[in-house]
Specification:
Elements: H1 5-10, E1 12-15, H2 19-31, E2 36-38, H3 42-51, E3 55-59, H4 60-63, H5 68-76, E4 86-90, H6 97-105, E5 109-113, H7 118-179, H8 184-215, E6 224-227, H9 228-245, E7 249-253, E8 260-263, H10 265-281, E9 288-296, E10 299-306, H11 340-350, E11 354-358, E12 366-373, E13 399-403, H12 407-419, E14 423-427, H13 430-438, E15 445-448, H14 457-465, E16 474-479, H15 484-492, E17 497-500, H16 505-514
Parallel strand pairs: 1-2, 1-3, 3-4, 4-5, 7-9, 13-14, 13-15, 15-16, 16-17
Antiparallel strand pairs: 6-8, 9-10, 10-12, 11-12
Helix pairs in contact: 3-5, 7-8, 8-11, 9-10, 10-11, 13-14
């Protein structure tokens, strides 16, 4: 049984002058947790190199073997990312011609004179393996770039194909209209044909613009309490032409009472319509599609099942990525750019939810599962009181700490909160905010900018959370940083809410009424 690939890639191949040298070197490196493999001859070493290795360790005497030419050839045939390290254990004494020749012909060579210190051997081994790991990282990066480039190439080919499809009948219709006069009733048929094809092209372009806006964070959600069954029924109506055109049987199990989530009803309709369209496209005519909604803890779970072409196991996670198409199923889809699932994933995550795909394999159908946070009343928590009209809601903490290095922004927000009946304290940096707390300021809410010089908002949040006197403090990030990596960093710092500038006061009050999450 061959060793795992990761283990093979980290091992050092040994070819020493004597078996005793090999035993001692292996023992020393094993204590340093460096894996080795002793080779009986250079032929075995070359074969081992081809299977995978982190480095080679050779005695100087081995290089004088005529078979060393095969090793040099093997090292010369490495892929562009690879420069396998070679450690040569040299004999004591003056520089030898063999060593000089090795350094000339083998690019990545480290020479250690025998007898050597144990620390020197271990240090050299660890150094070359670290360098080899950087090469592996470059290999993986290049592989990822090649894969992404291939996906983009396939996507552009699909885009060209889908844009040519409506252009062909439009061109034919125009040619017919130009060849001879037509009666208005007869010409109308061609105008309607061109109108349908133009509508199709507009949908393609809109899909492209939509996914671009969402992935760049250029979309705003209108969040409110939304009945999930109504959203799903609206999605079914949008997808009905595709479902009925393929004569699919649709079953719905929406549960009772209806589930309520906090979200943008239009965007959630788009999510489930895309999933239904996807199921319809990748299911043979007369197929079965089922949509199920239920409550699980504090989440609403919606599953869209089909008995269509299915998904290969290796594609289950990457299927949501841009430019990815499921291999072997493209002929089943009736048009489109294959970006619907990218839109689904982006929109669901903007709602604080998640989506995953499950399938037993190609030809065995698929299931897409969407999880969305329920509204507070649905999740078993007390419902939030509506915002007080014209003032700061009485249920919210009176004392608010505002921290922003932009003085105008900080002062304006402080004035706005004051006009609503709050008692804001404004600081223009992290150190000033900490001094206020040390002097006895005990806010119930802290609204912090993130990108401040010196101590940024994340560091300040961490230090505020560490103060026992502020155990009930609700932390709100108010920032222009809104990418996924920023959201993860801000959440890790302990913020309860993440709002984007410019401030939407209604969103702030709604977030605070929800409390920590």
């Amino acid at each position: 049984m061959s060793p795992p690939a990761a283990s093979v890639e980290q091992r050092i191949l040994l070819r020493t002058a004597t078996s005793r040298d090999a035993f001692m070197a292996s023992a020393v490196l094993a204590r340093a947790q460096v894996e080795t493999h002793t080779c009986a001859n250079l032929g075995e070493l070359v074969r081992g190199l081809q299977e995978g290795a982190g480095a080679i360790m050779l005695a100087e005497e081995v290089l004088a073997d005529p078979a060393a030419a095969s090793l040099i050839d093997a090292l010369g045939a490495q892929p562009p990312w690879s420069d396998l390290p070679v450690i040569v254990l040299a004999r004591q004494g003056a520089d030898s011609r063999v060593i000089a020749d090795a350094m000339e012909r083998l690019a990545n060579v480290t020479v250690i004179e025998r007898p050597m210190r144990v620390a020197s051997l271990v240090s050299a081994a660890r150094t070359v393996l670290r360098a080899r790991n950087r090469q592996y990282q470059m290999r993986d990066l290049l592989g990822g770039l090649r894969e992404a480039d291939q996906r983009k190439t396939e996507f552009l080919a699909t885009l060209a194909h889908e844009l040519r499809n409506p252009l062909a009948p439009m061109s034919t219709a125009l040619t017919l209209l130009m060849r001879k006069p037509h009666e208005p009733g007869e010409a109308m048929r061609y105008y309607e044909l061109m109108g349908r094809q133009i509508d199709h092209m507009v949908r393609l372009v809109n899909d492209l613009m939509e996914v671009s806006r969402i992935t760049r964070g250029k979309i705003e959600l209108r969040m409110e309490a939304v009945a999930l069954d109504a959203v799903i029924k609206d999605a079914v109506e949008l997808s009905r032409p595709l479902l009925e055109g393929a004569k699919h049987a649709l079953a719905m199990e929406l549960g009772d009472p209806p589930l309520v989530v906090r979200g943008d009803g239009v965007r959630l309709t788009q999510v489930f319509s895309n999933l239904l369209n996807n199921a319809a496209k990748y299911t043979m005519p007369g197929g079965r599609i089922r949509i199920v909604a239920r409550k699980e803890g504090r989440d609403a779970v919606v599953e869209v099942w089909d008995n269509g072409t299915g998904i290969a196991p290796e594609m289950l996670t990457s299927i949501f990525e841009m430019f990815v198409q499921v291999s072997g199923t493209s002929k089943a889809a009736q048009g489109g750019l294959g970006i619907g699932l990218t839109l689904v994933k982006s929109l669901v995550e903007l709602h604080g939810g998640s989506v995953e795909a499950l399938s037993a394999g190609l030809g065995q159908g698929a299931m897409f599962c969407v999880r969305l946070p329920l509204s507070r009343s649905e999740s078993g928590l007390p419902a939030a009181a509506p915002p007080a009209v014209g003032g700061w809601p009485a249920a919210l903490p009176h004392a608010v700490l505002v921290v922003d290095d932009n003085r105008d922004a900080a002062d304006a927000l402080g004035d706005l909160l004051r006009s609503l009946g709050a008692a804001p304290r404004v600081a223009y940096g992290g150190q000033e905010a900490l001094r206020m707390v040390a002097d006895g300021v005990r806010p119930g809410i802290a609204i912090l900018d993130i990108g401040m010089p010196g101590m940024d908002g994340c560091e300040l949040a961490t230090r505020l959370r560490a103060d026992p006197a502020l155990s009930g403090l609700v932390l709100v990030a108010l920032t222009g940083w809104g990418q996924q990596g920023d959201k993860e960093r801000i959440a890790a710092a302990g913020f309860h809410h993440h709002l984007l500038k410019p401030l939407d006061l209604a969103a702030l009050i709604a977030a605070l009424q929800e409390g920590p999450r």
